[in-house]
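FYI - complex with 9D3, inputs then prediction.
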Amino acid sequence: MRIDVLTTFPELFSPDPPAALAVSIPGRARRAGLVQINATDIRAYATDKHQKTDDRPFGGGPGMVMLCQPLWDAVNAVEAADTTPAKRILLTPQGTPLTQPLVEALAKEPRLLLIAGHYEGIDERVIERLAPLEISVGDYVLSGGELAAVVLIDALIRLLPGALGDEGSNQADSFSPATPEGLRLLDCPHYTRPREWMGVSVPDVLLGGDHAKVDAWRLDQKLARTARRRPDLLSRPMDPFP
Ligand code: 9D3
């Protein structure tokens, strides 16, 4: 998979790779060539003498709005650098919430082009013309889309075939398919040695060696924990595009 990131803060993707993608599963996957990540500075496509990428909003108000032209030219130049068609994604607080089913769908794409902004907004006309999939990583305010892009990339990379050392180890994660109804459950508690720590013992069922009983206990713990912490997950399966 090839991933291009368009940003006005390419420093957030240097050194190359950025620290968050240099280690652990993403680091290994990159070194194995499962994914190539390219950051491009939108400012390099600014045409005026001050390399301006934004301007004041029509109608007034705070903040700056990203200009149409530099972003449009940057997208077209980066897309032309490789014949593989790119799925365009804009990271924005107005986007569809990122969920594991959406990550799974995107992990099947050969090429993604991620657009990250540090702006009050982007001129709506270039968004309409680019027609990107718009994605949010949650209902809180970031300073820009770059960290959201890193979150999306990290979630994607671990789903690429060959990215996980132990191929099964993503199956038990929170948000992996769990129930026949397609519901995604939170994970159960985990324990290791010692059997007693600060006066607290490991649940007996985990020490008994009855694997069917262990599986039943774990499923019950997942259901109980999900009902208490995330009852919303039990009411309907997650859709990639809600
Ligand atoms: C009140 C107007 N703000 C919208 C909530 C303006 C605004 C805040 C923060 C506009 C852009 C940003 C920068 N955030 C992102 O670019 C972003 C983001 C986020 O803030 N939260 C969750 N997901 C994402 S994806 C991109």
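The two ends are 25 Å apart (CA to CA). The CA atoms of residues 17 and 37 lie 8 Å apart.
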